[in-house]
Amino acid sequence: MPDAIDAVDTPTPHRKPKPPRREIGGRPLKPATLMMGYGYDPVLSEGSLKAPIFLTSTFAFESAAAGKRHFEGITGLREGGAEGLVYSRFNGPNQEILEDRLAVWDGAEDALTFSSGMTAICILMMAYASQNDVIVHSGPLYAASEGFVAKVMSRFGVTYVDFAAGATRSEIDDVLARAKAQAAAQGGKVAMIYLESPANPTNALVDVEAVRDARDAALPGTPIAIDNTFLGPLWSRPLEHGADIVAYSLTKYVGGHSDLVAGSIAGAKRWMDPVRALRNTMGGIVDPNTAWMLLRSLETVELRMQRAGENAAKVCAFLRAHPKVEGLGYLGHIADPRQQDIYDRHCLGAGSTFSLFIKGGEAESFAFLDNLTIAKLAVSLGGTETLASHPASMTHLSVPQARKDLLGITDNLVRISVGIEDADDLIADFAQALEHV
Ligand SMILES: *Cc1c(COP(=O)(O)O)cnc(C)c1O
What we know:
alpha/beta
């Protein structure tokens, strides 16, 4: 091996160590175990048990030849990317440890982190779509994602075709055929199939396995990406069901404390590389401090999600039987057999974010929300604390009425994200708030 490469491979303080072990005696270690140490070696940072926060804009090269080799990787002249740290717009130790640990949860080869969920999603789409291409997406999407496709990508000649989240295989076949024809007419390709499941706020699930089969038949090689914010990483593992790229708003369950904004994508390295290249150009990587906070969050993500899921099941069992409740949009009580079938094949838990339909309309919903004492009146989800909001007048206020009707975003719909408080206290709070309705 040439000397220059030896120099690059020699561990020095503040350098990423070799990948640590992921199994003991052939037995793979579980993510919950790996979150405490995977990807970080204290020896490289003065013995500090926890990774320091690396506040630096740039990294000193060991030699000019090492610097050249890094840039060959960064610029794509050589496969495999940089072999060490170069400049903080590209990466840093905290971000690399975080990316290694996020990849573990999804069983992915590689992951990339971003300053927000939307930065992740926008850079992902821009990395794959060129002028005259078509993006196929399930609907509804998170409003900003839907807006990015319809209002921003369209300015660069990218059109879209969408389909309802619960679509069957034959409906998906039709949609892909339509998208293919549209792409051919425009002189482009179908750039990406982009999914979000469950859809917000209806909780309708996408049949990812059916999308994969339809893609394999009609559009082999077209990447399937999925926003897994609502059920991931614990309750849904879309890479095992045919998705190629999984996207997250880490702001929600992964961050889990309603104190940061960040995003990520994960998948095979070949799917990550074009996105990494665009992120290197544009920036948008998560900052070191937020990455450090996310490392702390990942140590408890399984505990928090399990507890929140158990709480939601108890709260929903109470709400379901309440005389002032018209119904629930909760994955633990699915009425539609097709949705139940998708759930059984794709999901490992019902999550802790659901829709509550109160008997009445906006006035009754507002009375309920205004009288909650434990649950906070705020948008977002996946935090330790329970949140409640009114989509029709808040997150989805700008959605035209016809589309609201189509999506079932009614005036009596209250959106709830259950946290990790005591379940009986939450039930008591919901009970007294319902008395005011
Ligand atoms: C919040 C959210 C996003 C956007 O994430 P940010 O971190 O707020 O940018 C995207 N998708 C879903 C499903 C979300 O809930």
